[in-house]
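[09:14] KT: can someone run the structure on this one? pasting the chain below
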Amino acid sequence: MLKKSILLATSILLGLTGVTHAQDRYQNRPPVIISPDLTAPWIMQLGGSVEPVVYRQQVPRATRKQLVRQRILRQRSGVTLVQPAAIVRGARPASKPLDPQFLPQTVTYETSEKPGTIVIDTNNRFLYLVGSNGQARRYGVGVGKPGFEWAGAHKITRKAEWPVWNPPSEMRAREAAKGHFLPVSMTGGPENPLGARAMYLGSTLYRIHGTNAPWTIGYAVSSGCIRMRNEDVVDLYERVKVGTKVIVL
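[09:31] RB: done, structure tokens below
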């Protein structure tokens, strides 16, 4: 009889302990996550408002950086096209803000050229828009790299906003030899090497244009064109017109 009593008491104790654990286990129920593709009618019977969870594939940070660098990579006729900015990234100077001397500013500038004339000092990497009273608006520019320097006088023959880039065959061949395969044509946009605006000089292939590589301002890195920061080229674009004289020194 004593053994039966002990067994009964033990059973009751274990039962109470199990109920207590069960209550603790289910006291805080985990939230119900419903996939967005579950739209069967039975979901509506749950009551209340159920917000479907949108699942997004997480891309590792390192991979995201690679994707940003290669977002212009495409497959066209089996040829891999390289983002044009990659061509100049290799020559990027140490990370630092733009030297203040290359920011737009009004300076004293003595010249015999008429107001409205553009004078480009390639040695010092400055573009001057001649004003009146011995002053000029000065901008920092990037100029032709060694072997691509030039000088002369032309007029602006055409202006374009977010211009299309059609790299000449000589440039494509030159870059292909380095392993950089350029597109035959590239529509205007933030990744376009011509940037936000372009002003074409005479009948040449040279232009004053924006850039997708603003860190190159103040350096000799181009194939002969005069490049400016996008915000600066937009400012200059609004101040000059077709027919403006441009002198490159």
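[09:33] KT: thanks! Residues 182 and 199 are 22 Å apart (CA to CA).
[09:34] RB: yep, looked fine to me
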